């Protein structure tokens, strides 16, 4: 049989199969004899007409048989059923031929189905076999980690992308020696180094989108020990209808190794709070703000105002959202939140009902030398925005805070804490105010991961401030999803804290990035530089006097503590505002410490590892007395 058939050849070939099916049915009916040959021959033209018409209607006369699938087999069944009904009606009732055996109608339909389907499957098998023989020598030999739905879909697509699947790996012992599309399950994760060596594997493809961070770390460790290139398919949230293609393969990144299971969000609770509402997001062009814009659009607001003072990043946000199904509801506004008059008119013009306030200065070392600007934007800008929102009839106001607000050693952390205190102490006057506190976000602008990656590429080394420094991390979509969930469960004045999992040592993160970049630990140096101004070794999520109360969502908690009265806080803030105009840095810090007694700002702590200390350097910490003296000293 030729492997390339033109359209006319397909018509004649399938007509021949129909005739063979009728002859075969006749022979089976009459015990391998051919009686009443005239009746048989007279029925052939009518049957061919019925079959060809029905096959034309279901597009079976054309198409590429090499891509035959379940849909084609369904079309064959429908075509045969329709053709058989037409044949019976035409022969038995229109032509009144009652002598044609009824069993032949059924046998012919079964044989036609088997032949039309079988020849397509045989053709596909022949083409696949020839393609494999032709490409086996130059295709990449791959080992697939996983033997589930994602692996099945990937294995089906691999030959089209220049890959030859040699085997699968799965930790389920029940799957050992099973096959997925003819590809055998060869062993478990621990066997990856041995299997890659035995079967001359070029790449390892990880097809376990539901794997936890711990499982991914174990798989990646085995892949690294094998010395092979490894890639992964997207996570569950990125897959569409469970389909995986070769184009979706990507390098394993640090987010895959975080170690948290996917977060279950009460979608309807969020939707009911946002659908049909006018929403304003400040700091919309930032990492958190832009993801907030995308997710809020998913919940069908009446309108979404994306506001930021940075024009170019806001333009890029507009480009990223242009293909969103509800993008027509989004507007983009270039403005400064400190412009009270404009913000008030903007809130009124758009009848804003919900505000997500993500606009803030966030870089710790920079804010240590720009105290007044930090106060102007993060504190007094917040107060003016709250006043404008309340005056314009806004219903909900959510402030994005930070774990740096807890026991702050940085001035930026102090401004975040002041924001929490303002939102909590502000009198309830029809507007529901709350704060959401969380830690570092992987992939955000200025975050440590892209900085380390650039250092690996350009400097062949990574600079870490201290060997023991740890931080809490979340992914951007994870953080924003929990912010939206917190918005639905929080009460007025609440400070809600997101479950950040366990803190991660920055040096461990650096070493993971080194390995993910294809280098070994001894190829890239890790250099310790000492803590920067305002930086601390460990971040906290709660103050010592804060009670951790549960909410209706298990990953959102409420930090409950006695609140400062609004009158007292307002007096402090008025005095702070005067100092921000003409006071010294030391007087500003002293006033902030009056409001936040936990605020301390030690001098930078040098690394404690002797091998990393400069000549003659020593680890330095200020005593409480020295710290107090520094608070009252000159700037």
Commentary on this structure:
This protein is α/β, with parallel strands linked by helices and 635 residues long. The chain has three domains: 7-133, no CATH class; 140-252, NAD(P)-binding Rossmann-like Domain (Rossmann fold, 3-Layer(aba) Sandwich); 268-632, 3-Layer(aba) Sandwich (Rossmann fold), CATH 3.40.50.720. The protein is 45% helix and 14% strand. The chain is built from 20 helices and 22 strands. β8 (278-282), α9 and β9 form a beta-alpha-beta unit.
Structure classification: alpha/beta
SS field, number of helical segments: 20
Number of strands: 22
Distance separating the two termini:
91 Å
Strand order of the largest sheet: 10-9-8-11-12-13-18-22-21
Rg, please? Answer: 34 Å
DSSP strand content: 5-15%
Main β sheet profile: 9 strands, mixed
Determine the CATH topology of the largest domain.
Answer: Rossmann fold
What's the name of the CATH homologous superfamily of the largest domain? NAD(P)-binding Rossmann-like Domain
Measured as a percent range, the helix fraction is 40-55%
How many domains? The number is 3
In the predicted model, the low-confidence regions spanning at least 5 consecutive residues are 236-243, 603-635
